[in-house]
Amino acid sequence: MVRNGPLSARRSRVLVTKVLRAFVTWRVSPAAVRIGYAHLMVAAALALATFFGIGYVPVAPGTVGSLAGLALWVVLPHSIQVQSAVIVVMFAGGSWASGLAETHFRSTDPAPVVIDEVMGMLITLFMNPVGWLGAIAALFLFRFFDVIKPYPADRLEQLAGGVGVMADDFMAAIYANVALRAMLALGRWIW
């Protein structure tokens, strides 16, 4: 046992015990719990909607969010079950979080909300056998379709609340996925 360290093993156990005892015996009124719960839900929604703060980047938050989606795709296992489950959970959670974020920021589809771009990159790359060059092409294709919003993405954007925030990027990502597949097929045919 090291005695000269910043916190010995015995002292750390005592500290943890005191913290746990204080936490267990702490009493709060029901009204304070409701207010605290509401603040906690808004904070969780903003964390998810901004993809843990990435959306607060001052320049091109949508592109930075797309890069975060690309990074998430790299670390996810490349199986149909895992990728589709993450996309479904991200759409559902993103719809909830984006709706609360719209209320918080007092605007529709606010710039800091980038969870839709993260999900869009996952859909663009879904089941596409690409390397780094293909992943970069996917990034450009998704950003292109996200900006121009071809039909019906432009209509889906008008849906109420967080569903509208997520649905237009979902459709733009489907266009980008199909375009990426066409590029891959054309590349195999030409080469």
**Low-confidence segments, ≥5 residues, pLDDT <50?**
1-5
Describe the biggest sheet? none
Number of strands: 0
Continuous helix count:
8
Short description:
With 191 residues, this protein is mainly α.
Task: Describe what this molecule looks like in 3D.
There is one protein chain. The protein has 191 residues and is mostly helical. It has one domain (9-190). The protein is 73% helix and 0% strand. It contains eight helices and no strands. It is globular, with a radius of gyration of 22 Å.
Topology summary:
Layout: H1 9-25, H2 30-49, H3 61-75, H4 80-105, H5 115-124, H6 132-148, H7 153-156, H8 161-190
Helix pairs in contact: 2-4, 3-5, 3-6, 4-5, 4-8, 5-8, 6-8
Characteristic terms for this protein:
globular, disordered N terminus, mainly alpha, 73% helix, 191 residues
